[in-house]
Design goal:
This protein is an alpha+beta fold. 28% of the residues lie in helices and 19% in strands.
Length: 262
């Protein structure tokens, strides 16, 4: 339904997409069957249109919103969230932005700023019923001019970011990462395209800071989703608790990550 509605929404605004050209949206999913009645097929065309029509710049909703409503992270309520970094390369600033929809992991896996919290959190409220590991969608966006090969390298650094917070990509985990660049100098015209195309991309020696930015922003996005999400009661009265932030702060102080006078 999302794929079909996206095509309709786009062709309504650009009719030539349905004649001379076509568009194939990329649609991904993470399983939310513990909280959501997935067999009900409740997402309709109007929901997709509403989401696309209401897209705007500025602050974004976080946590249990949109596709993140039914997400579970490390046995706590998860969701959707984002983070970004700004990198300077030869006096030019570039941004790396990441948005995640996180739905994976057990409490024994969780790391906060390198601190293992599994023993302190394992017995905090009954976690959701055991299941196969879930999945995560990571979308990495940048305005840095990069080749498709370099964008693939950003995706692999996104996995390093997930590893920083305890993800280990189990057998049943669907770890989906996609990266794109919207650098103006590399945009291709749909019409009147020359036979020979010229692309600009950064030298490989110059992109280490973009790697680090991707790692940090990916890890922070997942933690932001945990912090922003609230406890939820879903279908059949299934309950998923929110991350106990007071306990997290206490544990991070005890491990020297937060000043004790904060």
């Amino acid at each position: 339904m999302v794929h079909q509605a996206c095509v309709e929404w786009l062709t309504n605004r650009e009719p030539s997409l349905g004649t001379g050209d076509f568009v194939i949206p990329v649609v991904a999913e993470t399983f939310d069957g513990w909280l959501n009645d997935i067999g009900g097929q409740h997402v309709k065309r109007e929901h997709v249109f509403s989401a696309l029509d209401s897209a705007a710049s500025g602050l974004v909703a976080e946590g249990s919103v949109g596709g993140g409503t039914g997400m579970i992270l490390y046995g706590f309520k998860g969701g959707i969230d984002t983070s970004s970094r700004v990198v300077a390369i030869e006096n030019t600033q570039y941004t790396v932005g990441v948005i995640v929809q996180g739905n994976y992991g057990g409490r024994r896996d969780m790391l906060f700023d390198g601190v293992p919290l599994s023993q302190e959190l394992i017995d905090f409220e009954p976690p959701p019923e055991p299941k196969k590991d879930g999945s995560i969608i990571v979308t990495i966006a940048t305005d840095a001019p990069l080749s498709e090969r370099q964008l693939g390298r950003l995706c692999r650094r996104g996995m390093l970011g997930l590893g920083r917070i305890g993800a280990n990509a189990r057998h049943t985990s669907g770890d989906l990462l996609i990266a794109f660049s919207n650098a103006p100098e590399n945009r291709v015209r749909r019409t009147e395209r020359p036979a020979r195309q010229t692309y600009v991309y950064l030298d490989d020696e110059m992109i280490n800071d973009l790697f680090l930015a991707t790692i940090e922003a990916t890890a922070e996005s997942v933690l932001n989703a945990l912090v922003a999400a609230e406890s939820m009661v879903g279908r059949d009265d299934h309950v998923v608790p929110a991350l106990p932030m007071d306990l997290i702060v206490t544990l991070m102080k005890a491990n020297g990550r937060i000043a004790t006078n904060v």
